[in-house]
Amino acid sequence: MADAKKTITMDDLLKEENIKTLAASEVVEGIVLSVKKHEVLVDLGPHGVGIVPRREVGFSQKLAEGDAVTASVIEVEMEDGYSLLSLRKAAKDRGWDEIARVVESEEVIEVTAYDANRGGLLIELEGVRGFLPVSQLSAEHYPRVGSADKDEILQRLNALVGKPIKARVLDADRRANKLIFSEKEAIKDGLSERFEKLKIGDTVKGIITGVVDYGAFVNVEGIEGLIHISEISWERVSNPTDYVKVGQNIEAKVIAIDKERLSLSLKQLQEDPWLSEVEKFKKGDDVEGTVTRITPFGAFVQLSPAVEALVHVSELGDGDGADPEKVFTLNERKNFRVLEVDKDNRKISLSLKKAK
Q: Which among 187, 204, 220, 248 would be 20 to 30 A from 193, CA to CA?
């Protein structure tokens, strides 16, 4: 008697063809069948057709009919018979493997930001999204602006979007989905060599990268320098922006070197006008000057563009109890007598009570 006819299932066919059935999280290859607004259909060969929701395509990935793609299986078979796929997850899984290799080799890589916020740059590497904090930007790119000017910080960071940046992976945690980049670490070795070549007294060229209340920041071939407000000019500087602007090319003198920054001076590359102007003033001279600062112990008086002198409270004419705030008003001009000229310590003492 003949055997009863055997029903052949799809699993039987797959076994005969020696083809594995799909499994969740498996990575598969396919060809794009169609690209629609909300989904992409993928031909998986003997495994049928897979569907990729638009959100699972991946950041900025452009697809066209006929493209070969790699996808991760989210659900083996849905009600409509399609497999649910993710291109983004597959790219991310492969990306983490590549990132692990980069971290182990301490490789310097080139990354490009796709967006920015006030905290730093948003970067995607091999399908994995990461972050480059402002604090990890190099001197060339760090947005040196006043702490209150958050809009300008964001404007400076937005200017870096789309531009290649050398970086190292500072922190990578696959479980926590955390990926942090650093530009400073990528250029650290080169900076160390440049630091070793510099010495106090050198003249360097740089570009002003930021102007703040207390001075100006300078990019010196990737090394950050600071010109303190007291080193901008031999004149008394109230506002650094009156003397330097962002983007300006300057030459400065190195006056100190620490591990990460140079201290620079503009004024020390210029002749000190105080040395020539002070020659105009002698002990006993009657002079006219402008009151520039009033303090509890007296007032400072501008005698010439580079020479400032002090009239002590004891020389105001009403004894030690005189109140400088009542005797002077800012920017008024008065006559004084020169009591002493101390060239070694760059000091001139004046008297109001002895003036004619």
A: 248
Cα–Cα distance between 271 and 268 in angstroms, integer? 7
With tokens 């699972």, the residue in question is 56
Measure the N-to-C terminal CA separation of the chain; round to a whole number of Å.
Answer: 142
pLDDT of residue 1: 45
pLDDT in tens, 261-303: 899 999 999 988 988 999 999 999 999 999 999 999 999 999 9
Cβ atoms of 22 and 83 closer than 8 Å: yes
Q: How many CA atoms lie within 13 A of 327 on its CB side?
A: 28
In this predicted structure, the answer to whether residue 167 has a pLDDT above a threshold of 90 is yes
Give the position of tokens 């993928």. 42
pTM of full prediction above 0.90 = no
pLDDT band at 38 (very low <50, low <70, confident <90, very high): confident
**Eight-class DSSP state of 136:** G
How is residue 272 written in tokens?
């000190």
Q: For residue 280, give the CATH number of its domain.
A: 2.40.50.140
On whether residue 153 sits in a domain, the answer given is: yes
* Residue 129 to residues 62, 89, 108, 136, 157, Cα–Cα distance (Å): 17, 12, 18, 17, 17
pLDDT at 60 over 70: no
- Pick from 52, 74, 101: which residue ends a domain? 101
State which H helix or E strand residue 41 sits in: strand 39-43
Give a yes or no: residue 8 inside a domain.
Answer: no
Domain end position, chosen among 101, 116, 148? 101
| Distance (Å, whole) CA 225 – CA 22 | 59
Total domains in the chain come to: 4
Amino acid at 79: E
